[in-house]
Amino acid sequence: MTAVALDDVLRDFLEYLRLERGVAHNTLIAYQRDLRRYAAFLTRRRIDVLSAGRDAIVEFVRTVRSSGLSPRSSARLLSAVKSFHRYLVYDNRAKSDPSSDIQTARLWATLPKFLSPEEVDTLLGAPDEATLLGCRDAAWLELLYATGMRVSELVGLRLADIHIDEGYVRVTGKGGKERLVPMGEAATSSLRRYLGSARPKLEKKRGSEFVFLNNRATLLTRQAIWKLLRNYAAKAGIKATLSPHVIRHSFATHLLQNGADLRALQMMLGHASLSTTQIYTHIQQERLKRVYDKYHPRAH
What we know:
With 300 residues, the chain is mainly alpha-helical. The protein is 58% helix and 4% strand. It is built from 13 helices and 3 strands; from the N terminus they run H-H-H-H-H-H-H-E-E-E-H-H-H-H-H-H. The protein has a 3-stranded antiparallel β-sheet with strand order 1-2-3, with no helix packed on it. Strand 1 and strand 2 form a beta hairpin. The longest helix has 20 residues. The chain is globular, with a radius of gyration of 23 Å. The chain starts with a helix and ends in a 5-residue tail after the last helix.
């Protein structure tokens, strides 16, 4: 298969994911990047994608791992390659899938990082709510921790998604799937202040359906959220490198520590499979051990 023909197949595959599978835009971009890397590898080895065997795929994965790619990124890359080969069979371009018995790399080499409840309290108190932007930042920080949503879900929130009186938010996750997540009183109060006073001033009568705006009355971006979060972490004296995903992990960890079950957590996080949520089982195991030590008559 020529380079041009391979590009055509990749384009068809991405269109299939977008139109028939409803894959999210950011996931499509990641798949495109990973599969172009795979295609370049095959081209260098002079291997036709339709004749690529299991050994070629394993060699590819080992090559990218040795280049310093993280376990998480390696797992995502292998997942893209496996999906691509399944598509080739589905579309009758190939007779068999050489990746079918290759196990996806373990997604997490270590347990996800999370903050203590005390660190979260300090972080949430960092914005100066007396200022316009501080009021806004307090609202999205509270909402991020209250719901555990992804940063892409946060910046994509529309006014119609916020149901303050009912105390929940409608979140649109990966693949366009919607879920309802409770907000809690702290996030609700912070949102009321922002929507009632700060947001109308940021909007400047230009009209916007999005909840969180910058001082130019346009959408607050993911990059801006990352930068602001790290600034507030420094202000709060949190030395660990902070990202929106750490807040998401903190949300999940604290819920489980206080008695939530994995199935409920799966629904709130928007995980398609319970196996993804099970990275948090270490928390349940620690809690069960404390319960055992406290209540079993022969524990000590």
